[in-house]
Design brief:
By secondary structure, the protein is of the alpha/beta class. About 40% of the residues lie in helices and about 15% in strands. The protein is built from five helices and six strands; from the N terminus they run βααβαβαβββα. A four-stranded parallel beta sheet has the order 1-2-3-6. Strands 4-5 form a two-stranded antiparallel sheet. Strand 4 and strand 5 form a beta hairpin. It is globular and about 40 Å long.
Amino acid sequence: MAASSLHHIKLHGALYHDAHHREEIAKVVIRFMKNWPEPLMIYGQAGSILEEMARDNGIKWVPEGFIDRRYQADGNLIPRKEEHALIDEPEAAINQALDIIRNQKVCTIDDKIVSVNAHTLCIHGDHAGSLQLAPQLHKTLNEQNIAVTSPDL
């Protein structure tokens, strides 16, 4: 059996959002990463406390964008519990992905345009249709001659 190693971390749910906005949580994440025996990357939203702390500690930061979530005017995601937080239509999610890739921007829930610095895209696996969305997105990216690569340490 071949050995594998951890490449990156990406926090999930409330921990993801708390670590981006609360210094005491971000410190714990950074301490964990610094104590890991090998270098790790961390994926997250650009412009956060966590990004600043990761960069200050020599940890590679990979900014991400969300193709199946709607954004607020401040660039944050609309909380899941709110109406219209999710993008369930595959075509709309793919269009948001293309806007992020091509323009580094998204249209918010209130029709404003905000910058989204992203080098990776997230599709939430717990959405209905997410298993179908991934190959549809991949097909569209290929048709648009957009290369899919992974970030390097």
